[in-house]
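dumping this here before i forget
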Amino acid sequence: MLDRISSVATRYVIVQTLRPLGATIAIGLLLLLSERMIRLLEITLGKKNSFSIVFEMLAYLVPHYLGLALPAAFFLGLLFSFNQLSKASEIDAFMASGVGLHQLTRPVLAMALVFTMIGLLIFGFVQPHARYAYRALVHAATSVEIFYLAEEGVFMQAGTRTFILDELSRRENRFERIFLFEDRGEDGSRTVSAANGSLVDLEGETRPVLRLENGHRLDLDTWPNIDAGEPLPQHQVGEFSQIDTPLGQTARALFRSRGKDERELTLPELIEYYDAPPGGTTLQEMKSELQRRLVSIATILILPILAIPFALGRRRGQRAYRFAVAMIILVVYNEVVEQGALAVRVQDASIWFALWLPFFILTSFALWRYYRVCFTLRPDTLDPVFDRLSEVSNWVRRQFLQLLARRA
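structure:
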């Protein structure tokens, strides 16, 4: 009979935890991606297929934001679910039937192990590849289609070429009247003017190509030196009905290979190149990135034992303060880890002191509180803190209401 009750309790706790967990992840990702979408639209607006490029970029950003949202959502899901179980006295009912609090936490500990494996996959493998793909796409969007950044009557620079367009039609990829000047250095210059033209795609060419029609061309083999009294350089003048000229830089096909940045390396690659960092990356950066990822993955395991004691309030009025203190602890811990990783990267600080010491402190604190809640009858040590927060909050509210009453 007890085994059956324990099985029912396990399923019930999992369902109660997954509901707020899913909602929190969805809301968190929506907010984070919406904020980034605004900035991406500024980069791609006016380009060909701009909206499809934006959504492709957002897809590559999902693993990055999921790595942030998943631990926080899991933590909040545990707080909300066990708080609801406590408020409805369902935990008391399970305990009266012989199912202890430590037994109720077993399913969420199993969930923590599953989410740790998911975190290992995200932090160790998906994020590095997604980060590289996102950077490659940004490079392609900002460096290839210079035509879409042009404005009518404004001089534009594309490599060694300077040009100005008139009556620009982005929808048809056409323009009327163009003046183009190319600086060839010691080999002189080329000046081209055309009545009209368009932007075309040529097979095998990774740069935007301007197709000019009905124009004139002037080539100088050297730069004139008028002050020295030398004769004018040799020149060639011609007319053409159609000519193709590439603009700008090459794009995605020639984007740098993955791995120049340590954040683009998977966990096995970080370990493989740990003592021999790739070009442009230092040993300190490799150490910082590897240990930061390992700490982030390991932290997911301790979230249940950290969250549950804060969710089980003895007094209903203190629950909001418990939630606030729990979230502050988690935020401060994440900030300490980030600053520790920065200290390892910049100042070559000890990884044990800068990264793993905060983890062990948080783990010890969580285990201590979990033990007191699950296996002892002692009152919560932090109850005086919550009582003081409640008193201060009530005093501030009374003072504010009195101030409003006097002004009224």
